[in-house]
UniProtKB/TrEMBL annotation:
Pathway: Cofactor biosynthesis; NAD(+) biosynthesis; iminoaspartate from L-aspartate (dehydrogenase route): step 1/1. It catalyses: L-aspartate + NADP(+) + H2O = oxaloacetate + NH4(+) + NADPH + H(+); L-aspartate + NAD(+) + H2O = oxaloacetate + NH4(+) + NADH + H(+). The gene is nadX. Keywords: NAD, NADP, Oxidoreductase, Pyridine nucleotide biosynthesis. The lineage of its organism: Bacteria, Bacillati, Actinomycetota, Actinomycetes, Kitasatosporales. This is L-aspartate dehydrogenase. It is an enzyme of class 1 (oxidoreductase). Specifically catalyzes the NAD or NADP-dependent dehydrogenation of L-aspartate to iminoaspartate. Pfam families: Asp_DH_C (PF01958), NAD_binding_3 (PF03447). Belongs to the L-aspartate dehydrogenase family. It comes from the Bacteria. NAD(+) binds at A114, N183.
Amino acid sequence: MKELTVAVLGHGAIGAVVTAALSAGEVPGARLVAVVDPTAPPAPPLPAASLDIALGRAELIVECAGQSALREAGPTVIAAGRHLLALSTGALADSALHQRLLAGPGRLSLCAGAVGGLDLLSAIAHRAPFDSVTIRTTKSPRSLLQPWMAESEAARLRNATGPYELMRAPAREVTRAFPATSNVAASVALALGDWDLVEAVVVADPGAALSRHEIVATGPAGQYRFEIANRPSPANPRSSAVVPYAVLRAIGGLTGASGGIV
Ligand SMILES: NC(=O)C1=CN([C@@H]2O[C@H](COP(=O)(O)OP(=O)(O)OC[C@H]3O[C@@H](n4cnc5c(N)ncnc54)[C@H](OP(=O)(O)O)[C@@H]3O)[C@@H](O)[C@H]2O)C=CC1
Ligand SMILES: O=C([O-])CC(=O)C(=O)O
């Protein structure tokens, strides 16, 4: 078991669950030493800190703060030689940023978050490239409202009475358009190492009690379909409630606490 000092960036719906579990010792080997969130700092005894202080204390920085936070803080974390575990994978649609984070001296790892199947898709992609890959995300209309939307589009979302397709475009465009709800599209593209192959679809469904992600891939190796239906987080309906578990498992993978399947 490896001992790892951990800082968490973002104390929102996901970060709060992650920090509570870490401080309760639920991931053997991981010791929470800092929580960075300037607008929602945690109450003591959780160790609220600035990013600078966190970098002085922690070997691993876990980003649960959003694409813009990863864009802003990621290069500083990597330049400080720390290990960065990123959840807001859509920020890496900016290839220059992605390359910067890969350049070191720190190290970048990505968390699969709300979806599964990326290990198999990744294993296949580099041996027998897929012909087509689609990820279709269905969420409640209110969770899909965006500041860039025209008032007519926002009103359609607010007043939707049935499901409809809101956007269909390459993963890079969709993850930028829906930065808090379509990181999964980026994660599929990153797992395949091919941003251009992955088409992402966003569906607004007023009847969607669960957030659904359907990944369909076809190619010479076979046909693959993963369908995930997650309960939304009660604290933030844009995010699935299971995501903190994925983050904790990823941290456990780094300490050696997540046994079994790799
Ligand atoms: N890969 C995946 O499958 C998934 C990825 N995600 C990613 O995780 C992110 C977090 O989700 P969630 O917890 O639900 O979101 P929340 O909005 O509930 O929490 C995010 C928190 O991070 C804070 N924050 C913003 N910028 C910074 C910063 N630079 N440093 C420290 N803290 C910061 C926010 O503060 P403020 O409110 O003031 O901005 C907020 O308190 C999402 O935005 C999304 O990018 C989410 C779900 C799945
Ligand atoms: O939690 C989810 O269902 C997916 C999500 O928000 C994202 O990919 O950003």
